[in-house]
Design goal:
heterodimer; A: mainly alpha; Cytochrome Bc1 Complex, Chain C; two-stranded antiparallel sheet; 2 strands; 1% strand; B: mainly alpha; Cytochrome Bc1 Complex, Chain D, domain 2; 4 strands; 39% helix
Amino acid sequence: MSEHEYVPKSKAGKWFNDRLPLLTLGAHLTDYPTPKNLNYWWTFGGILTFCLITQIVTGIILAMHYVAHADLAFASVEHIMRDVNYGWLIRYIHSNGASMFFLAVYIHIFRSLFYGSYKSPREVIWIIGLMIYLLMMAAAFMGYVLPWGQMSFWGATVITNLFSAIPLVGDSITTWLWGAYSVDNPTLNRFFSLHYLIPFLILGLVILHIWALHVPGNNNPVGIDIKKPSKDTVPFHPYITIKDAFALLVFMIIFAGFVFFTPNVLGHSDNYIPANPLVTPAHIVPEWYLLPFYAILRSVPDKLGGVILMFSAIFILFVLPWLDTSKVRSAVFRPIYRQFFWILVIDVLMLGYVGAMPAEGIYLVLARVGTIYYFLHFIVVMPVVGYLEKTDPIPMSISEPVLTGGAEPSLARKVNDKV
Amino acid sequence: MIKSSIKLIVLSFLLLISLRPLQSAEMIDPIKVDWSFKGLTGTFDRASLQRGFQVYKEVCASCHSMQYLSYRNLGEPGGPEFSEQEVKAIAASFEIEDGPDSQGEMFTRPGKPSDKFKSPYPNVQAATAANGGAYPPDMSVLVKARKGGANYIYSVLVGYEDPPQGVTLDEGVYYNKYMVGNKIKMPNNLMDGLVEYSDGTESTVDQMAKDVTTFLAWAAEPELEERHKTGVKVIIYLILLTTLVYLSMKKIWSRVDTEV
């Protein structure tokens, strides 16, 4: 990325770097020219890396004490909470860490939506990011099953039963997933295995995500392409590292607040009741971060239709770069799209709210309206607004925020060719 | 920019917390008690924990198990903090089944502090059968397992009433104002003067309900005091470090003609 070739100073360094250019990589990462106008919404990438590593480290320690067996899992979690040194701390970091991870990823995704970071030439970064998000949901769902409480068991039952909606082979697939004729010990065992595997898949994808980012470089709040390096950029270290560190620490204060003072507020009290296949809880609700999709699922009276719609709600995001027809990236210069963006935010929050409510009466109506708007936003609003909208003038560069009055929206692409 | 970001994060979380699923409408809110273990620096009332253990032992334990607790927990910091001798004496007052011995036979011996609390029934089925078909739940994590936590448990204990007009109850079912569905199979076991507190506290129903709820709250979260203490230290440390990093960031970014 940087213009000059990195040469290690020491002889040993040069010897090693000729064989494996790790030092060149390190130099690239520290020198990496980053737009100087990145705001705090851009600090969530670093925060998410921290979340992933925290989950992996605490998870490995928990796995040393946890027993993946239907008769022993609940007791082993209590053993961790009571008998393992600081077991309560490690478990609460892990369980609240999942929520913090999703909080950060949602902010990260909506930041991308607002500033058009998914658009050319960053489509691959976006798609890898969505794959990470999908794996996160799978990991979180399976992790929630492991304590083998009532919500673990019934959540697993509801979600795995979705696959039985597939025509012809649905029941066979569900039995295959369970490894039994209902959610049972084999299910718990394989969920534990997969729960341990997925974070490392995510780690691999994170490396690809960052690699793909370093090819075109960061988007920025203005959304224009910039020359690198130039007076519009700063080296990643120390400018971005210190800023990321500051944001991460603020994030950690909130994280610690949950872990130490309200560690169970984001969970469901029913999950402290051991799993009982004979007693169904009054309301089966997933963790908060899955609620919008749960609302979409339940808004359709037909099971198969609900499942298709729920998965479509995620997969539609994969084609987002091609649904958005606007030549301008940042919503800062898109007065119409900007309003629709905030409507989408409210829509998703509302879907989350009704997802936690019983699927009846006004909640069902709201869920249906919310679901319809969700899809309209991507299928209709994004392509149409992109064509019709009159965007605001775009500055020539970050350092010249003064509007020159004549910058072409297409500049966002033209400058790219010269770099 | 910083301020607005932080505000947004806090707001979004407050929003998410307020989105907790609601219980069914028929349930009335439990009584709010000003527990000593509430709040950022809350601790347990040691004397109340010891009295609560007495209520548990003399009243609850005849039906409810607490299988995840050990007798040694009663002497650990942050709990009732009975002395070592007291813990040994409490443990020894129970006959624990052990074995098999070298002949392959099971035998009983006096309990040791390392033993788990003895359960009143050998298994869930036996407990269910002996209690009119309703399993008396294990109380180790009961406070965490009920929406409303300690307030709810306390409310149920003092919430027994005569059923309102038109409500008929089956044999062995009791009316309780705070219980979900208002029907409970546990009879009202507390009556004034039921236990004799050694510290001279008057054993009213309200007092016993508060004491045993405090005991159950500790049983569910034996780490609570340490968690609160560590949490305060961690947050203070993080705030100091954040301030230092913030100042460093300002200094570093002062070289660039952009505001952070």
